Amino acid sequence: MTRITIDNILSWHPCKEYQTRELLLEVTNNRESLTPLEVSHLDISTDDRLWVLLRPEVLGRRDLTLCVCDYAEHVAHLWHAPEGCSWQPSDTLDVVRRYARGEATDEELDIAAWVARVARVVRPAWVAAGVAKAAWVAAAATNAAARAAWAAMAATADIAAEREWQLARLRTYIEEPQP
Fold first, then answer.
1. Higher model confidence: residue 56 or residue 115?
2. Does residue 169 surpass a pLDDT of 80?
3. What Rg, from alpha-carbon coordinates, does the chain have?
4. pLDDT attached to residue 55
5. Does residue 41 carry a pLDDT above 70?
6. Residue 56 above 60 pLDDT?
7. Residue 29: pLDDT band with limits 50, 70, 90
């Protein structure tokens, strides 16, 4: 998507704060459409900007999945596999990235997601696997980003810094789609 329109945002069922065209026009300085990069710089909360941008309609499913993998990887060091489990977060994220690029099968992705969930290796990695296949990909991506931010907060008590890192990382996907 090269432009995000007010009609797009309204069709995604925003929260009460943004549920009318008038409210959205106020936020966008009376512009009916913006580029994803312009949305990333709006003077609204980071969470609200991520809510708009973390969508397959904006990034495409592949780049959205790869971005969510980056979010999970950024906090993966906070989790460890249970004693005796050799599966690590990077193992799941590797499969999810390969799947996003068309290099892994549905079965490989299902197994990687199942192992990550059972081993509780890293919740954002498990959710990233869901992003790769889910019909509800936008909600899954937002959920994965939120889980990664909460994990960072638990470790560092700075959720705002994690969300800003996520937005900065997302901008790299907007500016330069991944090969």
1. 56
2. yes
3. 17
4. 87
5. yes
6. yes
7. very high
Beta strand 4-5 pairing with 33-34 = antiparallel
In angstroms, the CA 32 to CA 151 distance is 36
Structure tokens at 47: 């969470």
3-state secondary structure 77-121: HHCCCCCCCCCCHHHHHHHHHHHHCCCCCHHHHHHHHHHHHHHCC
Say if residue 1 is exposed, middle or buried (CB neighbours under 10 Å; 0-12, 13-18, 19+).
middle
User: What 3 state SS string does the chain have?
Assistant: CCCEEHHHHHHCCCCHHHCCHHHHHHHCCCCCEECHHHHHCCCCCHHHHHHHHCCHHHHCHHHHHHHHHHHHHHHHHHCCCCCCCCCCHHHHHHHHHHHHCCCCCHHHHHHHHHHHHHHCCCHHHHHHHHHHHCCCHHHHHHHHHHHHHHHHHHHHCCHHHHHHHHHHHHHHHHHCCCC
With 70 as the cut, is the pLDDT of residue 156 above it?
no
